[in-house]
């Protein structure tokens, strides 16, 4: 029988109990809960930045990535005094805006962090546009080719974007925005881009929503970016054997066919020290001229 242990630590002035620090969460990578919390602290300036103003959904794995898991939207009880919450549609979400809150969630075995597309208190003025390049196959060697082609099309439209691994099998393309267009207006732009890609590269892309009807085509998902929906937050760990982390890439890395799982909890810190946050440095875009162009067609 495993021996349960616990200890008390102080994080940014807040005291909390850490339970079972030696529990293996990612067995293949030999990452224990204590090691995970250390990596979360390393990621905290980046992960918190992209979650702090969003409604947070976490995925909990109490017995590690190979055990049972569950999504959690409502803030679990008891709620420590340092945790802030925000309500939407009867759900009391955790506001991930501090290091103590992140460590508390990590101790609860919240291994994945998915942030809402809409910001708290700003329901229909997105500050980014996200396109999800989602493979139909678990192993898809063409995923970076697809991301590159989508990026090339955006560049031809004068749109600067940042590719990001989902940390699982796909790639997301993020365009920082002036808070001008609505989600519906962005969907119109996304439909235009997706239609073009699926017509130009019919053996690679589809905009078919039903997975069973896609075959081996890569889904260009412009619909997931919408009020009330979530996407994997930049720098969230993923419950995959590789302990992968959702990581912004350079377009050169995409062209060189970087693996979606190339960056993980054991090497993401070195990457951030070397390159910093590529997404934070991305220029803010104005897509209204593109929208007006599409409306005239």
CATH topology of the largest domain: DNA primase, PRIM domain
What is the helix/strand order? Answer: EEEEHEEEEHEEHEEHEEEHHH
Shape: globular
Poorly predicted runs: none
CATH superfamily of the largest domain: DNA primase, PRIM domain
Q: Give the mean pLDDT.
A: 95
State the total count of DSSP E strands: 15
Organism: Paenibacillus darwinianus
Domain DNA ligase D polymerase: 32-278
InterPro entries: LigD_pol_dom (IPR014145), NHEJ_LigD (IPR052171)
Protein name: DNA polymerase
Overview of this protein structure:
Pfam families: LigD_Prim-Pol. It comes from Paenibacillus darwinianus. This is DNA polymerase. By secondary structure, the chain is an alpha+beta fold. It has two domains: 11-119, DNA primase, PRIM domain (Alpha-Beta Complex), CATH 3.90.920; 128-296, DNA primase, PRIM domain. Helices cover 28% and strands 25% of the residues. The protein has seven helices and 15 strands. It has helices at residues 33-51, 99-107, 143-156, 183-200, 251-255, 268-275, 288-296, and strands spanning 6-11, 14-19, 24-26, 31-32, 54-60, 70-72, 84-88, 91-95, 110-119, 128-134, 162-165, 171-176, 205-206, 218-221, 230-232. A five-stranded mixed β-sheet has the order 11-12-10-14-13, covered by helices on one side. The protein has a four-stranded antiparallel β-sheet with strand order 6-5-9-15. A two-stranded antiparallel sheet has the order 1-2. Strand 1 (6-11) and strand 2 (14-19) form a beta hairpin. Helix 1 crosses helix 2 (99-107). The longest helix is centred in the first third of the chain and has 19 residues, at 33-51. The chain is globular, with a radius of gyration of 20 Å. The mean pLDDT is 95.
């Amino acid at each position: 029988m495993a021996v349960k242990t616990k200890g008390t630590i102080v994080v940014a002035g807040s005291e909390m109990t850490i339970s079972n620090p030696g529990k293996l969460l990612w067995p293949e990578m030999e990452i224990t809960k204590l090691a995970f919390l250390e990596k979360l602290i390393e990621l905290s300036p980046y992960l918190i930045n992209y979650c702090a103003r969003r409604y947070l959904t976490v995925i909990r794995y109490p017995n590690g990535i190979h055990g049972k898991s569950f999504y959690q939207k409502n803030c679990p009880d008891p709620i420590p005094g340092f945790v802030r919450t925000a309500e939407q549609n009867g759900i009391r979400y955790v506001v991930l805006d501090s290091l103590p809150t992140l460590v508390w969630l990590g101790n609860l075995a919240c291994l994945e962090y998915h942030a809402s597309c809409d910001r708290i208190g700003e329901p229909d003025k997105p500050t980014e546009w996200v396109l999800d390049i989602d493979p139909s196959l678990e192993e898809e060697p063409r995923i970076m080719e697809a991301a590159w082609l989508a990026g090339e099309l955006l560049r031809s439209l004068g749109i600067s974007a940042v590719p990001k691994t989902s940390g699982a099998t796909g790639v997301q393309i993020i365009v920082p925005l002036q808070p001008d267009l609505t989600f519906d207006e962005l969907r119109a732009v996304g439909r235009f881009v997706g239609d073009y890609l699926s017509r130009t590269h019919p053996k690679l892309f589809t905009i078919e929503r039903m997975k069973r009807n896609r075959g081996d085509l890569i889904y260009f998902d412009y619909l997931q970016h919408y009020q009330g929906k979530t996407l994997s937050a930049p720098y969230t760990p993923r419950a995959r054997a590789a302990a992968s982390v959702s990581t912004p890439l350079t377009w050169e890395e995409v062209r060189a066919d970087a693996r979606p799982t190339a960056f993980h909890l054991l090497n993401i810190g070195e990457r951030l020290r070397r390159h910093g946050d590529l997404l934070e440095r991305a220029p803010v875009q104005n897509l209204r001229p593109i929208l007006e162009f599409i409306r005239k067609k």
